[in-house]
Amino acid sequence: MDFNQPRQTANTQFVSIDGLYLSLKMLRVFDPFRVLKNWTQKMLVSSKTGRINMLRRTILKTSAAFALALTFGAQAQAELNGPVNYIIPFGPGGESDISARFQQPFFAEKFGEDMVISYQPGGGGAVGWASLNGLSGDGQTIMGVNLPHIIIKPAQKDVGFTTDSLNAFYMFHFTPDAIVVAANSPYQTLADLVADAKANPGQVTMSGSGKASANHLAQIKFDKMTGALTTYVPFKGTGASVTALLGNQVKAQWGYTTVGAKQGDAVRMLAVAMEERHPLFPDVPTFKELGYDMVGGAYRGIALPNSASADTTQMWSDMIGEINADPAFRQKMLDGGFAMLDVNAADMPAFMEARIAEYLKDAREAGLIK
Fold it and tell me: Tell me: the pLDDT tens digits for 60-119?
């Protein structure tokens, strides 16, 4: 499954009364249909003329259509009922906020409702995620979710939620990890940084966003791959981490491609953790090109309260998928330094299973969890 390819949404198709009759006759699962069929047979059992038989067939076929409408009408159809509250479990200004605001106008244009963004920061996202399942599952409230956060945090201690308790229904992008240096840094290439870190163990300091984060796990994995020893310095958010880099408080940064997009000529990226080079940075090599099998970063998606129905979950998965498939939205995201991802509700279990195994393994090896 290639999660990087935009998905095609299904088109509604209409069938004839004859087709409905045949399909329902084969399925034989619609009780209203059987009731109506039996009724029409009793009403017309003594009919002999062609005109009456034609009427009989028409009634039977119409009954099939009515049965279908009755059956589906009896089900609670998921739909929006006013503006949607989109909760970001961090403060404003970060990548989660930026990407949500990119979605806003597309959501309003496509679905006719406003997407109102609010913030619930605290505990590196844990405060928001711990409260999510206490909210209504009517489809009017959604919340951003981030990897590896929702996997590592509950593995470390009780934070009020578990990974499996969150109803994440779509992962729509990630910000690839990148090693970033200031424009005036002596490190022109990744090899320069690795050589210095090997020659001077622990002396190459690297800022990053938080502990047990995508940046932190990337630093641990990279040190293991290279045999070098760097020192990770956590900051509260990517912005503070960039400030430390530009202020010469550290020698390099474990950041994201979004840093390169935002900071422009003030920084230089040495490598990005992608399968292929980012289209915004065609001159920046991937780690894989340089011999290090590293692909990943901070994954971002959306979740509903776990009380949301399957229909509501599918409705939201389809809507976010439609936005993600829009060429204008994809270009806006790429221009911001993001990398696109398409993991819908159906594919989420397999995607999460792989991420859980990877992150927990890395975190245990690093001593971040027992």
Answer: 444 444 444 444 443 446 799 999 999 999 888 888 999 999 999 999 999 999 999 999
Q: Is 333 left (phi over 0), alpha (psi -120 to 50) or beta?
A: alpha
What CA–CA distance (Å, rounded) separates 146 from 156? Answer: 16
Hey, what domains does the chain have and what are their CATH numbers?
A: 17-74 (no CATH), 84-170+302-365 (3.40.190.150), 175-297 (3.40.190.10)
Q: What is the pLDDT of residues 305-316, one digit of tens each?
A: 999 999 999 999
Burial class (CB in 10 A: 0-12, 13-18, 19+), 51: exposed
Residues 239-257: pLDDT tens digits?
889 999 999 999 999 999 9
The number of residues making up the chain comes to 370
Residue 8 CB partners (closer than 8 Å, separation 6+) = 325
The two tokens of residue 265 are 């000529």
Cα separation, 354 vs 346, whole angstroms: 15
Q: Which helix (H) or strand (E) holds 348?
A: helix 348-365
pTM: 0.74
Task: Answer yes or no: are the C-beta atoms of 332 and 256 closer than 8 Å.
Answer: no
Tokens found for residue 341: 């991802």
